[in-house]
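Holo prediction. Input below; ligand is flavin-adenine dinucleotide.
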Amino acid sequence: MLYDVVIIGAGISGAMCSYMLSKYDVSIAVLEAGEDIASGSTRANSAIVHAGYDAKEGTLKALLNVRGCEMMEGIARALDVHYQRCGSLVVGFNEADRAHIELLKRRGEANGVTGLRIIEAEELHEMEPYVAPDATCALLAPTAGIVCPYDLAFAVSENSAINGADFKFNFKVDKIQKNGDVFEIYCQNEVVRGRYVLNCAGLYCDEIATLAGDPLPFTIIPRRGEYMLLDKTESKIASHTLFVTPSEKGKGILVSPTADGNIIVGPNANLVEEKSDTSVTYEGLDEIAEGARRIVPTINLKANITSFAGVRPTPSTGDFYIQPSESIENLIHVAGIESPGLASSPAIGEYVVEILKKCGLALSKRENYIPTRSKNGNFKLFCDMTDEERSEAIKKNPAYAKMICRCENITEGDILNAIYRPIPAHTVDMVKRRTRSGMGRCQGGFCRTRVADIISRELGIPLSEVRKFTKNSKILYGKTK
Ligand SMILES: Cc1cc2nc3c(=O)[nH]c(=O)nc-3n(C[C@H](O)[C@H](O)[C@H](O)COP(=O)(O)OP(=O)(O)OC[C@H]3O[C@@H](n4cnc5c(N)ncnc54)[C@H](O)[C@@H]3O)c2cc1C
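Structure of the complex:
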């Protein structure tokens, strides 16, 4: 088969490009090196839908951040993704911070961000009583929000899959050739052919560009950010995303609610040698603890239920690089997508569609386009259903009456749904990211084996073959007795 568009990478950039393109009558293949959607930076980040005052005026980042933030709510509603327009506050403590906050406000207004306002200490503490008493002012950005990043990536991917896009996992592109107008994209001996190629490989966009014979004109610097995730019992400490006033190193440590009801604390920003280095260090946790206490001195970090890290694909130029290759026709780079790449992602997808049109791809609206995540609508977790919806769900499938994850209230019905979705889950972590089973206070201590049991039963594989996530991540090796 010759695809119209081949997308390399199923992070939020590739997934959004696929989503925007699947509204048109084109054939799409998405090639992903990992086992699942969101295997790279999209899996581990702060999950903030930034309003758009950080990026310098006139940059592509500024343009796409503001537009992406505008579009996010509509997409989240259409696909039932956890999203909340909670607003953000950049908190200042002294005159230098105030001067920077004023600069951010001017910049945001120049970028087209609406509703920005500088608030004084009294109003700030009324809004956020746990913020440090010595905070003197803050920049309020009411358009900022929070979203579940991997669920957003699943949702747009599921939508494009039911509209015809083919997703191939464990497909690590290792060779790209062009024969006439046709790209041949290889993973070992397997080949996928396409007329247009989108390089959405995140941290590895430079490697894909080199494989295609068109090295990027800048470098991608891996910078790791570490996090703590606090139990839902701590949700009272912040209702907005709370930033400290940024420095040269970045936006600094934040304390924020998450779209799923926890509190996230982090990230730091440290250079790492390996792009895959998502380790969490004692020093890193100390650094973020100190940063978090600066904004919320009484924060209870003993309520930390897990820590994790993500790696940013920081471009040496400081801006997104989304443009057609100058030397290879119909190859489009979607590179250097560091923060606010998640917030910008709907606009990145829209922007890439326009580039493809200019490159000559004929786009007519898809007839019978399905706007939801499955042919029968969206998926709702049992815990998100109304009482009437719950009764209805249990009537149709009694598995919804069996609780599997007690911390997050996830039922067997939710887990079966994850196993049979358009992009199905076949490992414990794939189920976890689709349902939140194992993401609560006990971090899977209670439900992991039950989920493994259900996977084993449904897929007809021995329990010892059920994996946590990647190929080598076995959970059980055999019987002890
Ligand atoms: C610590 C941190 C905090 C952040 N906070 C925010 C935030 O609050 N708000 C925000 O807007 N943004 C934030 N970001 C940025 C955001 O996470 C990224 O901009 C976004 O996830 C990038 O998505 P992507 O699809 O371009 O890259 P990725 O998500 O990395 O996806 C690239 C995909 O390509 C695949 N791939 C790589 N090589 C190959 C190959 N050879 N063949 C096939 N597939 C391949 C990878 O497996 C991966 O799945 C943050 C990032 C980090 C790390």
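The chain has a mean pLDDT of 96. That is the main takeaway for now.
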